What we know:
The complex is a heterodimer.
Chain A: H1 11-28, H2 30-51, H3 64-93, H4 96-102, H5 107-135, H6 144-171, H7 175-181, H8 183-187, H9 203-211, H10 214-225, H11 233-259
Chain B: E1 4-15, E2 22-33, E3 36-41, H1 48-55, E4 63-68, E5 71-72, H2 77-83, E6 84-87, H3 99-109, H4 114-127, H5 143-155, E7 163-167, H6 175-190, E8 194-199, H7 202-208, E9 211-216, E10 219-224, H8 226-231, E11 236-242, H9 245-251, E12 257-259, E13 264-269, H10 273-283, E14 290-297, H11 300-310, H12 316-319
Parallel strand pairs in B: 3-8, 3-9, 6-7, 7-8
Antiparallel strand pairs in B: 1-2, 1-4, 4-5, 9-10, 11-13, 11-14, 12-13
Helix pairs in contact in B: 3-4, 3-5, 5-6
Amino acid sequence: MSDTTASAPGFLTRATVMTGRSLRISRRNVDAVITSMMLPVMLMLIFVYFFGGAIDTGSAYDSYVMYVVPGVLLLCAGFGSATTAVAVSEDMKGGIIDRFRSLDIGGTPVLAGHVAASVVRNLVSTTLVFGVALLIGFRPAATPGGWLAVTGVLLAYITALSWISAAMGLLARTPEAAGGFTFFMSFLPYPSSAFVPVDSMPGWLHGFADHQPITPAIESIRGLLLDQPVGNTPWIALAWAAGILAVAVAASGVLFRLRTR
Amino acid sequence: MPDVMIEAHGLTKSYGRPSARVRVLDGIGLRVARAGVFALLGPNGAGKTTTVRILATLTTADAGTARVAGYDVVADRRRVRRAISLTGQFAAVDETLTGEENLRMMARLTGHSRARSRQRAEELLERFGLTDAARRLVRTYSGGMRRRLDLAAGLVGSPEPGVFFLDEPTTGLDPRSRRELWQVVRDLAGRGATVLLTTQYLEEADQLADRIAVLNKGRIAAEGTPEQLKSRVPGHRLDLVLTTREAYLRLAARAVHHSPGSLTLGLPTDGTAAQTRALLDEIDPQRTDVDRFSLHSATLDDVFLTLTAENAEPADTAEAPARV
């Protein structure tokens, strides 16, 4: 046999190979990708054309579409990230994780691969949502710095939500259950300022709606896209994303060890 | 390389919540010499997979020690992983990737360059007769092709590993694929590898293994060469339906198979007419006790019943494997 010895690959190589794997797999699960892309678009159309006329968002916005796009972007991030849970759960079901472990590939590179693939999928679907938003009358006025900040906040949320989703995939015993576990991520934008101003909600909900993790993301993205003052909301949003990501990485590490004991 | 490639002492493992612990391994001891095939034979739930997972560093034992290729499976986990190849009960390949993509991915993960990975994948696809299916999704593969790809995936890494763990490699395969896989196992052993395979098929162990350990309820019930083990189990069994309970109780001690409900006992025999006739005359000289009889070829069940009956005090075999 010819020379087949090779040194153990570094984390970056392992994570890159894993990302390539996850991307190939998601490219072949076209149904799931299309669903997670079409749903936010449909919801945006529903909100703009069915409900939008009846929602009063105040004089700061020319039309409802100007108000709702950031919320739809976050909703889209929630849907897109949720498929990570199913992908991770599928992995845990088969023998592939044992194979990786016998090659000394632990949980983190495998999950990092799924999360990176999720970010790529989300970039595609976010672009699509944005394109449709422009078609139906969304007119952003962001500065170059604002665009950069919007991209940063969105990327941070997508990464954090994807990794939480990966942890859910480890928690669920079946891929079907994993899909169910992630419902709250698609639900979280509703009790926030995503679709209607928080002021219009009952008083007892204000506390939650004002302080939940999605709200600063929506507030900052909306402000940045429309070139309005955003105060420190981008930083609060990034802090939330970093916190969620830290918890998700730690939790998934523990869960992975528990699942592969 | 050490002469003893796999060595285990007193492995125990329990699963489940503290209130309902199930003891899967109850003191397993093994010694597997370098080169050749060692079979771990046992029914479902005997602890075969758990034993393999401990030896392959995928799980840890509650107690006991094990060394593979000279390295401790806990302290020297990484070195062990480099020295072994594992093929599990569930094909450890990606269904939504092609055979080639799977092998290239594994090669990349073991640290090969892109170009070298492509080359290595080609070599292995060729060797396992999968070149034609290289660009098809694994999901479309037959059971036999999947196992072969799985084996190839285990070979992708560093120099031809010294120790192979094959967990029920032929379960669910059709007879032809099974034979093809047997040939693959023989080839591996022929190249000087040490193969530990688990199986629930006596025939498979007989065909492939130089030594067999019979695993039952988390303990080694017997260990030896196929010939040694077979000599302990009668090849045939004479099943007698008795007329009275007294006759049943009188003969029960000689039987290897009991079903009191139907007053049926199975007695060991070599299956020849002469011995069967002599046996019937001996146990029933008055010709009143035996109602009907039938001849039954030995099954794995009989092997287990016999072997576990011989180990009425299995604690003796817990620390060191029974020498036959």
